[in-house]
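Much of what follows relies on a compact textual record of a protein's fold. With that in mind, consider the following protein and its fold in token form.
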Amino acid sequence: MSKRNLLLLNAGFRMTYSIGGLLSPAAMGKLQLAADTPERPDARLFVRGFSAHQIGVATLGLASLRWRRLARPAALAAVAIDLADMLSAAAGKRGELQSDLAGGLVFSAAGIAAAASSIVSSDAPSSDL
């Protein structure tokens, strides 16, 4: 897969997930893609905040499709934000691994893999990144 396609996949998924989390945290909870929020305003705020920072990273990724000089910073931002999310989730984990946390770890790991692959992919000259 090309660098641009990896960045598009990464940014597109982030944007789709994040719009859902921003507009309807409860629906994301029902799909087990976020914490259950109906009775917990703190969880709703967390899901919306998480979604907002993912939208920022996704926007940078989408901008890199137009301005190629942003590709490396976009990929590095994606790796950094996913790594930070995984580390903070692991640090806060208490007891049994819940489905929303497990899902988040899987999504973050996939994000890291796609973004890192776009950095090291050799489908185009390095000047593209």
Remarks:
- Residues 3-123 form one domain.
